[in-house]
Structure formats: structure tokens, C-alpha cells
Amino acid sequence: MKTILFILLTSLTLSAKAQGIEAVLQQIEANNTTLAALRQQAEAEKLGNRTTANFSDPEVEMGYLWGSPSSIGHRKDFSASQSVDMATLSGARRQLVRQQNLLVDEQMDAARLSILLEARQLYVDAIYYNRLCQHFTLRHEQAKMVADMQLRRLKEGDNTRIDYQQALLDQHMTSGQLQRCLTERQVTMEGLKRLNGNRDLIVGDTLFPAIVLPNDDATLMREMTARHPSLRALKQQLTVTRQQLTVNRREGLPRVSLGFMGEYVEGEKYQGVKLGMSIPLWSNCNKVRQAKAKVAADEARLTDGFEQRLNAVQTLFKRQQGLRLTADTYREAMEKSSNGPLLQKAMEAGQLSVIDYLNGLRLTDAAIEAWLDAEREWQRTCAELLIYK
What we know:
Helices cover 69% and strands 10% of the residues. It is of the alpha+beta class.
């Protein structure tokens, strides 16, 4: 156990080398393997989108025809043409590609913020376990001191074996609580390491970061909701769908083909401009109707998504208010009722039984855990709200 305490105290004294939360988030954003893969995927999708805005390939035809009877000679044909559809010619397809690439950016940003939210919440958990481990480290040392004192008194005949057994039980309980905190802290740090591309991070803070939230008035909550990355992605998806409707309408116009054509026979040649037109009677059938239905569906998704997110924002505001009040209540109670030193003096002076002394400490432990747990949950809730800023 001494080794564990040494490791804990050493790690918690590294706060001078530890990074703050913003520095940690910057490292994770740079080193996260999921984000690296998503960036490459986004680039590939953008390149794929750009290929749809290119003109169709030109067509070249060549022919060599043997004449019969041979006296009429042979004929050589050559033609080259380029077809152009109105969606590409008018720039509607290029505009669609631009909107599709913006959608890729919004989806990428939503994924990025989701990973950073997980990292921020794990950082809060690390601070929570640092603080809790710090508390139970002191409690374990205190419990060991009390157990040693009760053993000495037992040998001197100044107390009973029950008192010693109770003190020894408290020592084992605090040892188990400390071990649990160390384990949870290690798991939390492994989570941060995973997000950081399997690179170690140091979190030595024992104080939660200060957070200032805006007022929860109705107008502000609607503005914050509209800024949520998932809502921005839905809004951009609707823009893409509307632009696709424009493209489909332009594709319903005739496709023009312009080129050169030459026909050569012995002693004669014909050459000139070749003009063609393709009328999309069947290929564009129901495409416009389908695009209109998709626009209506995406509009409904956006409306539904906004209402759901607005409800989530309102719930988060109410939750953080309740947690803030709970944490403040526990903190004020701890400040007014912290009587650990008084309990120890009374116990050492024989004015308080060992059992009453230990019960008082355990009540303090429960209050500290409840206070820190409320603080942690408030910080995690605020982290979700910060996405909307």
C-alpha cells in the first residue's frame, strides 16, 4: 500500500507539468486516430463530389468502309463531339458540389465535437478521482495512525479489543476506498490516452475548471440550439437536397451535343459542324418528384431535430441548475461542519469513543463524496452545454 501511496502522491505533484484542459483538448484533436481517419475520409468524399461536376467525356468516331465495286473507292469517316447538359452548363451542378462539400465539413465538425466532448468529460472525471484519491490518501494515513494508537492502548490496557478491531476495520475500509479510486483514475487516464492516439497525458489538477454559463432565457436557448453541430449538419443537408432539386430540373432540359464530322471518299470530301440534341423523355422520369419528396422529408427532419435539441438544451439547463444548487449545499455544509480535528482531539482525550469517532469520519467521507460527485456531474453537464456555444 505504501507503494500505491507513493505513486499517487508523485502523480499528483506533477501538476506543474500537467496540461490544462484546453491544452489537453488541442493535443487530442491533433493526435486522435479517429479524427485522422475521418479527415482522410472527408477529403476522399470531397474529391468524389467534385468528379460529378465534370463535363461528360467527348466522343470520337472513325470509320473505314471498302467500296464495292472497287472502282468507287473507299470511304473514310471521322467525327468528334462533346455533349453538355444544362445542369453542368448553368453551374447548378458545381453549386451542388460546393454544398455537398460544406455538408462533409459540418459532419466532420460534429464528429470532432463529439470526441472533444468525451475528452472534456473524461478530464473532469480525472480531476474528480484526483481529488477523491487525495482525500482517501489522507484518510488512510489517519486511519493507520488511529489503528496504531489503539493497538498501543490495547497493549497498555487502556482500551478494549473491540476499539482496536473497529480502528483496524476502518483502516482496511479506507485502504479499499483508496484502491478503488486509484483504479477508476487509471481507467479514466487510459480513456484519455486512447483519445490522444495512445499517447500519455498528465492530469494533475484537483480543482475543477471555472465555467461561466449564459442565462437560460428562451431566445438564447433557441439560438444555442441552432448552433448545435448536428442541427447545422441537418440544415446543410436540406440545402444540398434543395440544390439537388435544381439540378434535377435542369437535367430535364435537352442535352446539346456539338462537334465536327468529316466524310472522305476518293476525289470527294465532306466536313463540317455536327449538332445534336438528346431529349430526356425517360431518363429523368420522376427525378424531380423524388427530389421534392426528399426536400419535404429533410425539412421535417430539421424541424423535428430542432425541437428535440431545444428540449435537450432546456433539460440540460435545468439539470445543471439543480446540480449547482446541490453541490453548493454540500460545500456549504462541509465548510460549516468540518469537525475532523475536533473529533480526533476528543477521541485522543478519551471524551469520545472510537466507534463514535469513526462514525463521524465516515459521515464526513460520505459528505465529501456526495459533494465531489455533484460537482463532477455539474461539470459534465456544462460540458454538453458548451457544445452549443
